[in-house]
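Project standup — Tuesday

K.O.: blocked on the structure for the chain from last sprint. Re-posting the sequence here as requested.
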Amino acid sequence: MIKPQSVSTVESVDEPTQSVATGVYICVHGHFYQPPRENPSLDAVGRQSSAAPFHDWNERILHESYRPNAFARILNDQGEVASIVNNYEHISFNIGPTLMSWLERHDLETYQRILEADRRSCDRHSGHGNAIAQAYNHIILPLANHRDKVTQVRWGIADFQRRFGRDPEGMWLAETAVDNDSLTVLVSEGIRFIVLAPSQAARCRRFGRADGYDNWQMVEHGEIDPRRPYRCFLPEQPNGRNYIDIFFYDGPISGDMGFDDILHSSQQFADRLSRAVRPDAGQDEHSHQSEHYSGGDQERSQLVSVATDGETFGHHRQGTEKTLAYALTHEFPARGWQVTSYAHYLSLQPPTWEVQLKPVTAWSCSHGVDRWQHDCGCGGGGGWQQQWRAPLREALDWLRDRLCRLYEKASADLLIDPWEARNGYISVVGDRSARSLNQFFADHQLHLLTSAERTAALRLLEMQRHTLLMYTSCGWFFDEISRPEGTQILCYAARAMELAEAVSGISLEAEFIGRLEQAPSNVDYFKTGAGVYLKQVQPASVSLEQVVAHYAMGSLFSTYRTEQPLYCYTLRRQDYYQQPLGTLTMAIGQVQVISTMTQDQTTLAFAVLHLGGWDFHCGIQAFPSRAAYSKAKAATIAAFTSNSIAQSVLAINQQFGRTYTLQDLFAEERQRIMQQLSQETLQRLDQLYEQVYRENYGVLMAFHRDRITVPQALQVAADITLSHRALEIIRSLEQDITEPGGDLLKITVGRVAELEGIATEAHHFRCELKLPGSQPILERLIWQGLSQTLQIAAPDRHRELETAVEGLERLIVLGYQLRLPLALYRVQELYYDFLTRVRSDQAKIATDQTTPVWNLLMRLGYALRMDAKAIGSV
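H.V.: unblocked you, prediction finished:
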């Protein structure tokens, strides 16, 4: 428990004599976070079938929550879009740095919209933005050693500064887990406030009154009043500040957001919040929560603050980002409430109350932080044991300590201060350019490092990065060690050990696996954590040889550049030879493999033989000289030209060492090649079905005319033939999209007519069209067509505009005819931005609703399900 300070210490704090804020303030905080899912060997997320139809869970939640909150719709009574709101501009939020890194790479538009939201909130609230930082990779800070706490906080701050361009005022702690040492680190690093659950407070009292302190109020059962900020005092700090401010979110309401139906509508949400408003703010004096949270004195303002996982809005609760948008921009202001953030409210109403916390606590475990180290019972509720938690943490702690000693020893001749270098390494994690690397080494190298020494230092630092990542809290959160989260942190451990061995030659893996044997799994297949490691972690590791095998087999089907990026590697081609011979194809080459992470460079040669179908034979070898490679290449080519498969395979085995097959490739590359290999067979089948359909067209007509059940073979022939025809036309449309210049809608009019004819024919024959990949093509076509159309929205181009609008309407209707669930959100956003600008710039276009141009824009809005009259009118 934090020790209380003397009266003189407290009274020395410069506080206003009264609140600057007045009235009711509402703060909704969203904790946006996903566990890192990247394969540590590739720095890329693999396909996750459970997230279908999306590639992986990050992508799925992006489309269900992160992006919808950046472009939240407010609908009119007819379900048309009347307004688009950036929810991040109105809520307090933190987004995990590892998630932000993924967003930056995979959806730059959403990423920039989040940054823009913070900038706008800063402008509106005197520099106090909505965004707060997060300890870097969601570790449980109280269970980390002091050194790791410092790195986690500094990395979180540095990542925030790089993205948002300002210092963070607050920081979100993973699972709100906190202890005294964590608070000390936060204060020493300049963090001004944190957010906790009400159950984490022990007692509170007012401070700074002329008549001295009030008595302590015991609030250890969650009774603390969350409608004000509190100050928690610490021992004196080097930076001169001996306190951190704390907001406690309203526990009951926050729980209802996740587990009740209060987000069903904005009115229900506001009604639930209103029960926390004090009677003196004009609410019901008999409100249960107002009585429950009475604190004995009444400030002129009060804060109703709620916090929940950001994914609640749209992912856990579908469509609730719309509820939130309307509540923030209409419902709350209509009730006289001011929407704010923690940082802004703290600038208006500094604490007048002191709080002391329980020793070690978190928001999702009633046993302190045992959920991440013991069999405490907190979990998924499935009845499985959690006895694996303690051995898992003990094994990782053992590994961490061994790696720390190795790190200090191996970096002693490379880095001025190894731990300060680790703290500063976040600058490289966020930017791996040559300029960033040069600046990092200029700051931290003990002497001017050679290329080999730089690589050694980067290996050590990457080893430390993965050591930190292996403590990501999700690995312990649920009931079973073999879940994806537990497997993921073990993958980080494996990568850390791999890097350690590359630097020192010391292998720690066998002993680590032995320690994992003490972690019992609930799944018989694995039995223990050692089984999880052997059956799930080791197979996921990717060697440099596998990277080159991927390149070699892929080169038979793709044209690679001289310098080809491949996940977190660059492969620089030094030699390449390919020769077909009947049904066989052979490729031989040599590439330099450069790691983006460590700048490590290795030259490997390959020889790959495609025997037809899915049968590949690929050898990978490192040759000591160019001459040795040339000799092996010549011998392998000679065997191949002898027209003997056996001799060719034998030559590859003899000259190129260990061999790989298609099964050894990364799953997605393997699937891509399999699809390409299937194309010839599928094409022949399409031709057969086309012939059956054409020869039996009249028979099909008769069956449908007389309403007789069509024989399955004939119906399948119709389904496949019409689907194939439509796919061919849609793929030709994709080429039109990529062609620069020209009137896109005019160019595609003929193909659109053909598709309309196919849709009519399919409807008549009751065909089930299967058009994989067609939806995004049509969506892009509509987007580009709209972009061109809006450029001619002027009175003197009325006729052109009318033709373009008709074309867009046809495309949208075509999507429905082909039964493609068009997602027109980007198209709607383009239209919304245009109309909003038009309304603010009347010189550009007449906004009189009687003009022909305006009528066409209204007609276009109707097709896009947009309320053109409402957009930009306020």
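K.O.: great, moving the ticket to review. The chain has a mean pLDDT of 91. Residues 667-695 form the longest helix (29 residues).
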